[in-house]
Amino acid sequence: MNHFDYQDGVLFAEGVSIPRIAADVGTPFYCYSTATIERHYTVLAESLAAAGLKATICFACKANPNLAVIRTLSRLGAGADVVSEGELRRALAAGVPAERIVFSGVGKTRDELAFAIESGIMQINVESEPELLMLSELATAAGREIEVAIRVNPDVDANTHAKITTGKKENKFGIEWTRVREVYAIARALPGLVPVAVACHIGSQLTEIGPFREAFLRLRDLVQVLRSDGTDIRRLDLGGGLGVPYDGETPPSPAAYAGAIAETLGDLGCSVLVEPGRLLVGNAGLLVSSVVRVKTGATRTFVVVDAAMNDLMRPALYDAYHAIHPVTEPSAEVEAVPVDIVGPVCETGDTFARQRPLPPVQAGDLLVFATAGAYGAAMASTYNSRPLVPEVMVNGNRFAVVRVRPSYEEMIAFDRLPDWQSDTKTGQ
Ligand SMILES: Cc1ncc(COP(=O)(O)O)c(C=O)c1O
Ligand SMILES: N[C@@H](CCCC[NH3+])C(=O)O
């Protein structure tokens, strides 16, 4: 578990024990390791450089938008890939320079595009013709020339979960392959836009190099055609998607990934931009939870914990696997028995694991959900009126709360009880 390891029988995050943090902030909480995030960034940056690539790593903030996480990466030189005005504002607030920010997404609104232009970000990845026209209009009104990439849909199967595959022609993302030349021609002709890049992202949690290679080879041909059409392509945005092991998967290493980029695209004279999310933060985070009680059902034993599907949605949404470990190291003699590990939310889907072998536990014991640093807190909700859980960052032998748990008063503070006689509106 990287910088999460047992020391004298107790689980530590770097130099801080998990029970120490739990005593301070209560459970459930997310815990991130600074050293793991830094190591993943450095390994990827060094792999890209060793492959001879001039590359910028733009962290996909959607994976973990915590300001302290974004700042840790931006201090190492990372840029940011954002998909909403909220993420753009977070990246700027965390200190990412605007010239290292790229804006992706199929549904950017007029206001979001205007804010991106005003912020002076590096590149906007356009995903449709209407968006191109809107961006040109806004850029012209602002008296600006905007560097754009067209996100293309290469119709390549990423061989990942259907809900997170993005590069097939039936997916909503990108410009369909057969229309790409035409759309670049429109972009060239529009005022306020400078098409300088091609963008492509075929999906998330890829565990094979083949689909990346297939997409990169398609991009290679495309760049040559676009250049012959008169578009000066100087930058390639290759998206993110490199997977991490959750349950024994063996995704390509950063070196193999960088090698595939260099082999297929390295001689085109383009700078490269990658948008990893999960790779940088996935196994840099744990969700720590307490056992509320152990309940014996008709056919199985349920370990009911105080974390739920609203805190970590991946098992309910994608049937995703997260390893679950006790915070006290189990001794080799203790036999693990299959249990269902469930949360308190009123849905059967609020199940983290079915018939998972676990050493015997009792109320009050701490359990951790591994590999929860990406798309964990990021996707949390307050379903069942459960306040969002705190996030804690460890750095060496120190820890800090980097997101506080709201009080119940704060959680309900945005609701309103209207006085129907006065402060309401009419309308047809
Ligand atoms: C455009 C874009 N870039 C980057 C990412 C980050 O993906 P991952 O976390 O799999 O690296 C995503 C999410 O799949 C995305 O949609
Ligand atoms: N939320 C997904 C990843 C989505 C990637 C977004 N482009 C997951 O947890 O696996």
Ligand roster: pyridoxal-5'-phosphate, lysine
Mean pLDDT: 96
**How would you sum up the major sheet?**
9 strands, mixed
Low-pLDDT sequence parts: none
Category by helix and strand content = alpha/beta
Overall morphology: globular
Round the Cα radius of gyration to an integer and report it.
23 Å
Number of strands: 21
CATH architecture of the largest domain: Alpha-Beta Barrel
User: How many angstroms does the end-to-end distance come to?
Assistant: 59 Å
Query: In percent terms, what proportion of residues is strand?
Result: 15-25%
CATH superfamily membership of the largest domain: Alanine racemase
Kindly provide the name of the CATH class of the largest domain.
Answer: Alpha Beta
Function: Specifically catalyzes the decarboxylation of meso-diaminopimelate (meso-DAP) to L-lysine.
Domain Orn/DAP/Arg decarboxylase 2 C-terminal: 29-373
Pfam families: Orn_Arg_deC_N, Orn_DAP_Arg_deC
Active site: 346 (proton donor)
Give me the secondary-structure topology:
Elements: E1 4-7, E2 10-13, E3 16-17, H1 18-25, E4 29-33, H2 34-50, E5 55-60, H3 67-75, E6 79-82, H4 85-93, E7 101-103, H5 110-119, E8 123-126, H6 129-141, E9 146-153, E10 175-176, H7 180-189, E11 193-199, H8 210-229, E12 235-237, H9 254-265, E13 271-274, H10 278-281, E14 285-296, E15 301-305, H11 314-318, E16 324-326, E17 337-342, E18 351-358, E19 366-369, E20 391-395, E21 398-403, H12 408-412
Bound molecules: pyridoxal-5'-phosphate and lysine.
Pyridoxal-5'-phosphate (PLP) binds at residues 60, 63, 81, 104, 166, 201, 204-205, 239-241, 275-279, 374.
